[in-house]
Sequence to fold (406 residues):
Amino acid sequence: MDIAAFVSQALPQTIANLQREYPNAIQHSFVAEGEMLTCTPSSLHPAFYGCYDLHSAVHSCWQVVRAIRLCPDGDFVPTAVDVLNRLLTPENLAAEMAYITDRPGYEMPYGMAWLLQLLAELREAEGKPFTAWREALTPLEEHAAQRFRRYAARLPFPVRTGLHNQSVFSLGLAWDWAQTADDTALRETITTHARRLYLADRGAPLEFEPSGSDFLSPSLAEADLLRRVLPQAEFSRWLTGFYGEGMMESLPRRLAPVQVVDPTDGQLAHYAGLNLSRAWMLQGIASILTDDDPRRATILALADSHAAIGLPDALHPEYMVSHWAPIAAARNLLNIAHWFQQLACKLAQRYHPINPLHPSYSTQSVPGPRQSSTPAPSPHPPPAPQRGDRRRSGRPVRRCGPARPV
Fold:
């Protein structure tokens, strides 16, 4: 399956969910005495009422914009453009701006980070609909950037969960936007405070991952941020201290892929995205390591094993999965064809589903990299540049996709 085939399969569901008002998990803060909530989700959030909650609606808009940019001739494009034209109007977005102006901490950090990611994608796109959406979103973009300047500077300690309030993942998305928008001040702020918050970390407690409702890996997200902000040599040394000298053995064993046990449960369904978020973070970490670094092959193989299990889960039609999980695949569209090839290979070899609650489960049965001191390279393509990568030349790579639609 290539990028176009995957997008054509995933996008209709996302487009429908952006217009689906119920069920809805409104997170509303009452700010005035006597205030009463007597409205529908679409009247409260006229642009971002779908996809169950606001942050899911925002990153689903990002998913649609990215798909249009990479597959401009797809069958889904006319419908997608029409839906975004109806949602991302100046009037709707002015109402969203008025709401968060009264609630400045609303959807921080996760929702505002994805808002910046949406704007970063729009800044890299060309053409009339992209420009109109970007201009209408500009006030929200300025609000989110300002919130992250304060957030990074005021954070006394990291938030180390695997959920929305995790600090390091959102700081990474904000840093990516700062790269694309050429916001030197925010980029330097995040770099300074990433060093303050994370540089001294050693011995990542992998035995505590995952928790029962994670969709992000605390340790991989941390490494994925620091590969952005540290020089290559410094990051390589930090990675050794963070995961230890035996990381080639410990990572595949401790961070084995997981299986969704109940896609109808809003918390347990988070595993539908955990495998793929781990995969893209592993790809990002590998992208900064030199070709002769023996850790690189192990990390890429582990990314493949996560993606092979995560891709079918992310396309599950159950709403507790479909309202958000496809973005985990869209985050790394350029590797979709390779990952489906890996999935086909694993199915052909009849790997059993990995279910940590199944009596037969053991880490020894997890498909993953070969366990040896010098792993043999596998047929991986070079990791696709992640937004914000600093390659060995030291130059920032700003684009997570082609410079122009393909």
